[in-house]
Amino acid sequence: MSGILRLDGLRKSFGSNEVLRGIDLTVQQGERIAILGASGSGKSTLLRCINFMEVPSAGTVTVAGTPVGEEARGGRCYRPAELARLRTRIGMIFQQFNLFPHMTALQNVAEGPLSVLGVGRAEAEARARQHLAKVGLAEKAEAYPARLSGGQQQRVAIARALAMEPEMLLFDEPTSALDPELVGEVLETILGLSREGRTMLLVTHELGFAFHFATRVIFLHEGMIHEEGTPEQVLKHPRQDRTRAFIGRHSTFAF
Amino acid sequence: MEYEFAFGEILRDWDLLARGIRLTAALWVIAFVTALAAGLFLGIARMSPRRALNWPATAYIEIFRNTPVLVQLVWFYYAFPVLTGVQVSPFVAASLGLCLNTSAYCAEIYRAGLQSIVAGQWEAGRALGMSEATLMRRIILPQALRRMLPAFTNRAVELAKMTSIASVITVHELMHEARTMATQSFLPLETFTVVAAIYFILIYPGTLGALLLERRLATRGGAA
Amino acid sequence: MSYQWDFSPVWRNAGPLLEGLGNTLWLSGWSILLGLALGLGLALLRLSPSRIASVAALVVIEFYRNTPPLVHFFWIFFGLPILIGVSMSPFTAALLALSIQSGAFFAEIFRGGIVSIERGQWEAGRALGMSEARLMRRIILPQAVRRMIPPLMERSFELVKTTALAATLAYGELLYRAMVIASQTFRPLEIYTAVAVIFFSVLFLASLGMRRVEHVLRRGHR
Q1: Residue B119 CB coordination number (10 Å)
Q2: What sections of the protein cross the membrane (chain C) (predicted)?
Q3: What pLDDT, on a 0 to 100 scale, did the predictor assign at position B222?
Q4: Per-residue pLDDT tens over the stretch A26-83
Q5: Number of domains forming the structure of chain B
Q6: CB of B34 within 8 Å of any CB in chain A?
Q7: Do B200 and C162 lie within an 8 Å CB cutoff?
Q8: CATH number at residue B40
Q9: Would strands A5-14 and A58-63 be described as parallel, antiparallel, or unpaired?
Q10: Pairing of strands A66-67, A90-93
Q11: Stretch C143-162: mean pLDDT, rounded?
Q12: Are B82 and C188 in contact (CB under 8 A)?
């Protein structure tokens, strides 16, 4: 079983600072993985290496059985066109939403199909409306991002990723930039997606949510996978001291 | 001390002035449109991490921004033909000089504008699988251009003033016609007063426009 | 196409060229000083509570900012003497044209610097019982000047470039000297290239200096 995504010996350094120190991970179709860890443990970088927002320093990323990039002297080399194609298959949701401020919610969601996939305008907009409806924002289609709350913006961003009909979704701390009262609606939307059997990877600080959301939990420490298992195992019966200490610090964690 | 102004005589030669205005406008439009296009490529080259692109662009921009535009025009009219063996007309030399000068300033406006777009916008576009060209055209430039608009309007105002310098290399634009009229009519005071007023009427709307754009941007915060 | 460069006319005329550069700098220096004084005066008028003074200053500033400097050179050199009955040397005409024009720009920088100080600073000073004059001197100006220095320097570089227009009045600054030498030696390419290099060196060094000043100013702030 090669899985939909496989990481082999993934490493990433920023200057002399080695953030990822050899990650091996295989993700099966339909798995939902929550990536936990203290700040600086490399969890965001790991996620961002999967769709090459950061180019790994070493190691390979294999998507649906095909390794990304080519072996060249001194490491792997990646062609921009190949990375662009790869990214159309992997959706990403950012901590800061990153909606395009000069476009309405509808235009934001239609933009990818329209300008990247080459779908016709009418069809792209129909698709966009459908996905906005799915995140519960059909009536906000004509609103500009500046007129939306943080929670609404993040839901539009989720619709924008879904409109590409990706094979997997990456969530990079999707609720960290939100006011506490707006977190719920975004988590609700993500849980809704998990019921559709989508492959998802999520970096989060919300341990309670991770417990309900994930089929597998990964605990990262100093750029390596320190512990992994089912939510039950990792969050309720952690074997490693560091994992236990980390969970202990999140006293608000309630199952 | 009591001087009798004779503006009537100047305005009788309105045809001459109108011809000058037309040429001034032509010079202004040609130089500005070409500079806007050239400046975009220069600005992007200036931002490139590749040294082979970045260095020549930086050198070009610094040279044109750190020499007087009159020296540039004189150089293109008198020196450039010696180098290339091609004699250019005063109008071509002036258009070329003004375009190159303005493109250097435009490049810096583009650079500042593009750099003002936060990293998240570039990332969001890339995450959708956009090529760099699509990303630039659909996401970055539409946002950046809005912010650059006041600076470009100011540049257009500066350029309009600069066109008068083309008179020195005998382009028959407004200033040149004025100099001819002043010597022929022996009425320099009236001539240059009228011409100053014409320039003001042509240029001031641009300055007002830039001011309005800046205010609108400030209240709208650049979005939507 | 293979042009034989010959810079010897430049070296032979180094004396007059350097003298021209000296005149360029002399004209620039006096114009900046006079321009700063005029600009300060215009800015104070502009900020004064008197509506007439403020509008008058605004008209002068806007007129000079929105008309080509070359027109001012010619108006002052050829037109103004008719009005006042005193003939004008090219230097005086250029000095007046340059300093009034840059004075208009300087005035906007002065005014912009002062109004850019947040209202809270004025209120804090007043709450301490400071007089307006003391408030201006102790609280507002020290902060405003810091913000004014970079644009004032930038505008001064613009002025140095504009001095080349004095060549059209036959004032013996760098470009005019070069024009005379070019017509005598028939070597316009070398002469005008040399002029461009000289201007570039002076202005580029000055802008490097400005970057240092900006750096120091930014570090000085908190």
Answers
A1: 9
A2: 25-45, 73-98, 191-210
A3: 43
A4: 999 999 999 999 988 999 999 999 999 999 999 999 999 999 999 887 788 999 899 9
A5: 1
A6: no
A7: no
A8: 1.10.3720.10
A9: antiparallel
A10: unpaired
A11: 92
A12: yes
